Q: What sequence folds into this?
């Protein structure tokens, strides 16, 4: 038998009997993996005369890129915005649990908190790859405290901040450091915010607009300075108005610089956004839609009282409210449920539903050269699903990290 050792000693895995999501469509072909990356079988056959060391029978299922959640506040009793002595073990616990929902990478999200919380939490968690220990961490998403008082949602008012004349220095004073930060959500109408947007983008941090009363021209100005995301579209922003559509108007704005895409998060849990609003957004700008869970501590737990940062949250059915109010505060729906609901509510294709949870968030974060797709050379972070989009197994770097029990 010919040897496949000419290039690498690493074993080769062949996923057979599957439809793989590549180039925006499901294709009936095998998937080959070596060294944690997706292989070009043609090169393997013709250049190396290689063969598979191991086969995984997918039994006719769908192989899609692993899901990427860019906004998740916690889950399973863990609140990322609580400053404990061992934040990283809480993040690791959630990282392990979300494998069953097809999530292979995520951005732990901190809601508006006092500076002491950022100073304590941020140094404790580093960007790292996923594996059998859990989903990979792509960097923090800092949602607040530089947001609008009128659209604070579940964020505690006493910790909201504005930018003084020092702009980015005020932000650095609050956060302490921007190491291991991937996304910052801010309100673009705040004084000095545009210089902050510019500086964050210069440092390679994704700027998202949210919890804001910005009009369309303020939002467009932020995009021209580099902002590229909208935090949970429709939620915590001015409602669409035909004379000034506000941040929502970015979906069809003609002021977005050529070649740039504005992405927008949607919490497709059936509660945060009416299915008709989901359809409007998807039909207006399908290539920008990014599914996020916005999940809180209570995901995976029974109804009752839980926390979100400095607030007490009450779970009633599938609704999460700030205790004693009807203010929604995050979601308790996992990512795979959001994917299924989005497909059913929007009438989109299976491919579009899967890409909204994989390709689009990877493009948003500028990592689509390695994640969010099944191109040759990309990381072999995969999810195996049935036709109803239920998760059957999750793989990171081609290795199985979770499989549905019998």
A:
């Amino acid at each position: 038998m010919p040897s496949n050792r000419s290039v690498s000693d690493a074993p080769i895995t062949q996923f057979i009997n599957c439809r793989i999501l590549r180039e925006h469509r499901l294709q009936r072909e095998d998937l080959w993996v070596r060294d944690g990356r997706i292989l070009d079988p043609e090169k393997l056959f013709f250049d190396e005369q290689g063969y598979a060391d191991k086969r995984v029978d997918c039994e006719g299922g769908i192989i899609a890129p692993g899901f990427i959640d860019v906004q998740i506040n916690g889950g399973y009793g863990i609140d990322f915005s609580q400053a404990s002595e061992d934040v990283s073990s809480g993040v690791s616990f959630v990282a392990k649990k979300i494998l069953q929902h097809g999530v292979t990478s995520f951005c732990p999200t901190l809601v508006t908190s006092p500076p002491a919380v950022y100073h304590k939490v941020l140094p404790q968690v580093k960007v790292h790859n996923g594996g059998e220990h859990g989903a990979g961490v792509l960097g923090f998403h800092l949602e607040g405290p530089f947001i609008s008082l009128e659209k604070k949602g579940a964020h505690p008012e006493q910790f909201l901040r504005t930018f003084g004349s020092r702009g980015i220095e005020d932000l650095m004073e609050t956060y302490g450091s921007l190491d291991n930060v991937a996304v910052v959500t801010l309100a673009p109408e705040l004084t000095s915010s545009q210089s902050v947007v510019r500086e964050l983008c210069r440092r390679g941090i994704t700027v998202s607009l949210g919890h804001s009363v910005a009009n369309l021209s303020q939002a467009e100005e932020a995009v021209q300075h580099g902002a590229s995301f909208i935090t949970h579209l429709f939620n915590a922003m001015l409602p669409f108005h035909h004379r000034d559509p506000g941040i929502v108007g970015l979906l069809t704005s003609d002021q977005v610089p050529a070649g740039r895409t504005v992405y927008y998060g949607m919490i497709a849990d059936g509660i945060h956004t009416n299915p008709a609003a989901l359809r409007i957004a998807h039909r207006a700008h399908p290539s920008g839609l990014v599914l996020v869970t916005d999940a809180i501590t209570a995901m995976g737990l029974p109804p009752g009282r839980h926390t979100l940062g400095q607030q007490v949250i009450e779970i009633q059915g599938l609704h999460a409210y700030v205790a004693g109010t009807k203010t929604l505060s995050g979601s308790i729906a996992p990512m795979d449920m959001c994917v299924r609901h989005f497909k059913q509510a929007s009438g989109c294709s299976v491919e579009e539903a899967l890409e909204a949870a994989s390709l689009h968030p990877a493009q948003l974060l500028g990592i689509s050269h390695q994640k969010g797709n099944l191109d040759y050379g990309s990381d072999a972070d995969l999810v195996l699903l049935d036709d109803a989009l239920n998760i059957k197994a999750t793989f990171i770097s081609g290795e199985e990290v979770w499989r549905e029990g019998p």
User: Anything to note?
Assistant: The longest helix spans residues 335-346. The longest strand covers residues 103-111. Residues 1-5 have pLDDT under 50 and may be disordered.
